Amino acid sequence: MYGTAFAPEYQGALSEKLDVNSSYEDVLAAAGSALADADTALDRARAALALAEAHRRLGQVEEAQAAWRTSYRSARTAGDPDAMAWALWSGGTLARQCGRLALARRLLTWAVNLAAEGRDRLAHGYALAGLAETGRIQGDYAAVAELHERLLEQGRKHGEARHMVWAMSGIAQMHRNQGDYRKALELFEEAARIAGEAGDARGRAWSLRGVADVLSLRGDPDRALALLTEAEVTFRSMDLTSALAYNHKMRGNVLFRAGWYEAARATYGIALEEFDAIREPRGAALSRLGLVRSRARLGGEREETLAELADLDAVFARIGLKAARETVAASRAEVMAGTTPVAV
Predict the structure, then answer these.
(1) Which of 18, 81, 188, 310 yields a CA-CA distance of 20 to 30 A from 317?
(2) Every domain of the chain and the residues it spans
(3) Class of 240-344 per CATH?
(4) What is the CA radius of gyration of the chain?
C-alpha cells in the first residue's frame, strides 16, 4: 500500500504551502519569500533548497547553482547533516541535468554519506535514488540494478508512492534498453497507475512517456503519440521545461520509428531548441542524433552524416553515455554500408 504522494524537498513552513503538483513558478514565489523571511540558518537552507529545485526544473542553471550552494552553506552553518545532504542532492541532480555525470556522482555520493550521519531517511533515499539514476543514464546497469530494486522495496515498505514510481520507471528503462519490452511496458504502466492513484501528476506524466516509448517500439505509434500529448499537458501546466523538451524528443523518436521522417526532423528541431535554451547538453545531443538520422532518411549527404556522427560520438564520450555511443556506432556502420541509421 502507499499514501498520497508528497514532496519532501519542500521543508519547514514550505511543506504547508506547496505540494508535489505545485507549479514551479509558484514554488519560486513561495521559496523566495521564505528565504527573505528566514530567521535561522536552517530556515535559509530549506528555502534555498526549494528555490534551487524550482530554478533547476525551469532550466535556469545559474540561479539553481547559486541556490543549492546557498542551501548547503546555510545547512553547514546550522550543523545539520540532513539539510547538507538535501542541498548536495539538488546540486548533484543539477550536475546530471547539465551532462556533468562524474560531478553528479561525486556530489550524490557525498550526499549519501552525509545523510547516513543524520536522521532523515528520505534524504538518504533520495540521494541513493539520484546516484542510481546517474549510473543508469551512463548505462552502468550492473552497478545500479540492485540499488533500484532495493529502493523499490523501501518505497513499498514505507508506502512512498514517488519512490515506488521512480524505482519502477528506472527498472523499466533498463528492461527496455535490454530489449525486454513486455516487462518494460508492464512496469511503466504500473508506475503510471500508482502515480495517478497517489496524486503525483508529474510522476504519472513521466511514466506515460515511458509507456509511449515502448508502445512505439512495439509498432503502435498512434497510441504512443496520444500518450505523449497527454503527458505534455501536465508538463506545461507545471512549468516543467526540461521534461517538456524530453517529451518532444521522444515524440521525434516515435515519428522516426513510424517512418514519418519530415515530422520527426521538425520535432527533433523543436526539442533541440528547447534543450539549448536551458543548456542541457545530454538532451541536446540526443536531439541532434535524431536530426542526423532523420536527415539521412530524407536523403542527406553521406559524408556530412558521418561527420556529424563523429562529432556526436565525441560529445557522448565526454558526457559518459554508453548506450548513445552504441547507437552512433550502429548508425555509422549502416551509413558506411549504404543503408540508413537505425532507430533507437
Answers:
(1) 188
(2) 1-123, 240-344
(3) mainly alpha
(4) 20
- If we measure between CA atoms, which residue out of 271, 320, 343 comes closest to residue 59? 271
Nearest 5 degrees, angle CA 198-CA 199-CA 205?
A: 105
For cell 519569500, the residue is 33
DSSP assignment of 1-12? -------TTS-T
**Taking the model in full, what pTM does it have?**
0.88
Q: Looking at residue 170, what DSSP letter applies?
A: H
Cα 2 to Cα 102: distance, rounded to the nearest angstrom: 34
Q: By the 8 A CB rule, do 243 and 280 touch? A: no
Whole-angstrom distance, CA of residue 30 vs CA of residue 200: 20
6 grid coordinates: 508528497
* CATH architecture entry for 1-123: Alpha Horseshoe (1.25)
Answer for the pair 91, 48: CB distance below 8 angstroms, yes or no: no
Can you spell out the DSSP letters for 180-227? -HHHHHHHHHHHHHHHHHHT-HHHHHHHHHHHHHHHHHTT-HHHHHHH
Domains 1-123 and 240-344 belong to one CATH topology: yes
Contact at 8 Å (CB) between 281 and 320?
no
The pLDDT tens digits of the residues spanning 140-179 come to 887 788 888 888 888 888 888 888 898 999 999 999 988 9
Examine the pLDDT at 183 and tell me if it is beyond 70: yes
pLDDT reported for residue 344: 47
Place of cell 515511458: 210
Task: Please report, as a single letter, which amino acid is at residue 223.
Answer: R
Helices (H) then strands (E): counts for the chain? 17, 0
151 close to 33: Cβ distance less than 8 angstroms: no
Closest CA to 44 of 54, 53, 34, 55: 34
Write out the three cell numbers for 101. Answer: 555525470
